[in-house]
Design brief:
single chain; 300 residues; alpha/beta; six-stranded mixed beta sheet; 11 helices; 54% helix
Length: 300
């Protein structure tokens, strides 16, 4: 008898779908690798450009539970492994005692990835709710109290740098908030010495786009903790500015990049701040240049 002919029961369409799935997974992996490399490159560039981290630094990474701070911690850990200098990282979360805050999430996450951490407990939530008038936003007072607590704790643990997770859009939003509502031309610098001179604050994600950070956080599956105190407030000025910038970028791609470049390329003589530029002394400068010009002509 001739051998029986076996027939593959798998339909051709199933094989095609499987091949498409494999290609799709490979494509997603490539895109994720490109995203991760871009975030690492931009963060590394910011650290180098502003001299954010030096040999032997102990960097206190402020971890809120949001996408930005998770991304900052992970990218810093990645850079730390290949950096030409030695520095240490310690994660610090300020538990502000907001009702319903899931206190177990961050300790479990940080222990799982093997990062040293501290949970600093300060009931700033009650102070903010008590001191903020009805209908006013809580951001300003909450930020001051949070900053004061973190600055003091950095000294306690011997941290030489305090790392915050602000990104490019945060910096631009702050610029416009100060222009529109504060009457000043200032933003969040990538590196800052605190008013009392005791702490240096760094923003390693200063060059990074928020969209990239959001995509990275989603793919990494970080256990995000929303800020109910901030997010639940209506008519936040920052949200209005955020929407304005997003609309500009949508209609004119590349505009945010150009605006951020402007923040790094300031010409004090072309503005009007008398403390930054000596406008009254321009006549003297003119006379000095004229004398130098005459000297050069005579020498020739």
């Amino acid at each position: 008898m001739s051998p029986a002919i076996s027939v593959d029961p798998t339909p051709a369409s199933s094989v095609e779908h499987e091949a498409e799935d494999i290609c799709s997974l490979a494509r997603e992996k490539r895109e994720f690798n490109k995203l991760q490399k871009r975030l690492r490159r931009l963060t590394g560039n910011a650290i180098i450009d502003y001299g954010m981290i030096q040999e032997g630094d102990k960097v206190m990474v402020c971890l809120s539970g949001g996408k930005d701070s998770y991304t900052m911690l992970e990218i810093l850990r990645s850079l730390q492994r290949n950096a030409p200098i030695n520095f240490s990282l310690v994660a610090v979360n300020l538990d502000q005692k907001q009702p319903g805050f899931p206190e177990h999430v961050l300790p479990e996450y940080l222990e799982g990835i093997g990062v040293d951490y501290h949970i600093l407990e300060k009931d700033t939530y009650s102070v903010v709710k008590e001191k903020t008038p009805e209908g006013k936003t809580t951001c300003a007072l909450c930020s001051r109290l949070r900053r004061g607590s973190l600055y003091g704790f950095a000294e306690e643990i011997g941290a030489t740098k305090i790392a915050l997770g602000h990104h490019r859009e945060d910096i631009l939003e702050t610029l416009f908030l100060n222009m529109f509502f504060g009457g000043s031309l200032k933003s969040m610098p990538p590196k800052l010495l605190s008013d009392d001179g005791k702490n240096i604050v760094i923003r390693p994600l200063a060059y990074c786009r928020e969209a990239d950070i959001a995509a990275y956080a989603e793919q990494m599956g970080f256990p995000i903790i929303p800020c109910n105190l901030c997010g639940s407030q209506p008519n936040l000025q920052r949200q209005v500015v955020k929407e304005m910038l997003a609309e500009w970028e949508s209609k004119h791609p590349g505009r945010l990049e150009s605006m951020f470049k402007a923040v790094t390329n300031v010409a004090p003589s072309q503005l009007a701040d008398r403390n930054l530029f000596d406008f009254e002394g321009l006549e003297g400068e003119q006379a000095r240049r004229q004398r130098n010009r005459i000297d050069v002509v005579d020498a020739g």
